[in-house]
Amino acid sequence: MAAMNLSADSVLAWRAHRHLLHRPAGHDAVAVVGRLAGVQAQVASAAEQAVAARQPTPRPGTTAAALAAGALVKTWAMRGTLHLLPTADAPACLALLAAGRFWEKGSWQRSFVTTGQLDAIAEATASALDGRVLSREQLTAEIVERTGDQSLAAHLGSGWGAVLKPLAWQGLLVHGPADGNRVTFTRPDTHLPDWPGLPEPDAAAARMVPAYLGAYGPADPETFDQWLSRGASKRATLRGWFQELVAAGELVAVTVDGKPGYARAGDVEEIAAAEHTDEVRLLPAFDQWVLGPGTRDAMVVPPARRADVSRAAGWIAPVVVHRGRVVGTWEARGGEPEVTLWPESPPVPADRLDAERARLSSYLKGVGDA
């Protein structure tokens, strides 16, 4: 049977609904983060705003409250970047990253530490964080003392956390409660309620691949892996995860304007029938609307404008979205969103844009964003 062909317009309309961009009632911070399969949190205010952008009445502080309650966890996850994840979903997500064993590559070890040193760091960390919350400085000091390896201090003290990321992926540490401006760490199994430990990679894939496709599908395995690990997973393993789900009837092959990919079987008819509204959305920096499919997705970001969205030093600009496509960017100035629309984009309804700017302005002033 030939794969069903879906249009880019219907795919984007369906994704917008799945991303809660119509702002239905009843979705708290945990539900929003779960629907998006995680929210990047390198910039905490951007993560908070990503949730607020999908709620009918945004209230500052909802992600912080969910973190404090243990319903969300902050840790290094997809692409080695900090994310908010629902605590219930985090083990599966981390298990897929741990399965890649990226830290065993020679290039990683030459840049950072050997696998032997990392094993010693992991053992020391497990002991140091048992039932405790430590700052980066405190954790570094304890690891150096427990391993007797003074050379580790520089790597452990780095704000990029390169040496700590493999520990996060193995479920050995997560970010702890905020301590002013200081980062803290703790062990998930002693800090979070009912932490189950990491599942086997195949079981994790059976959960996370459909979760990804439920927000960013249809997509091919390579696009999923760019989102997960910047393309670092083993090809055979990656394709095996998808084929197992196809064989189980959970995924089906489709095309989007002729480009092959996979969708959840139960979503195909809904995708085909999806239609756009004329709403305009101002989404924050690092929003999942562009990070999920990637800024190379020409359906979402016009190729000629990719540099306006994906900027120097990994910065992903706040974007204006109309009918699923990025049509401009914006910046907050004095608590007001200053919008730049791209002249070559289709016209944006002025009244819808004005309403969105007013809503965002109210939110920004509420959180003191200058």
TrEMBL record:
Entry keyword set: DNA-binding
Taxonomy, superkingdom: Bacteria
InterPro entries: AlkZ-like (IPR009351)
Pfam families: AlkZ-like
Keyword DNA-binding assigned: yes
Keyword DNA-binding: yes
Gene Ontology molecular function, alphabetical: DNA binding
Name of the protein in question: Winged helix DNA-binding protein
Native species: Micromonospora palomenae
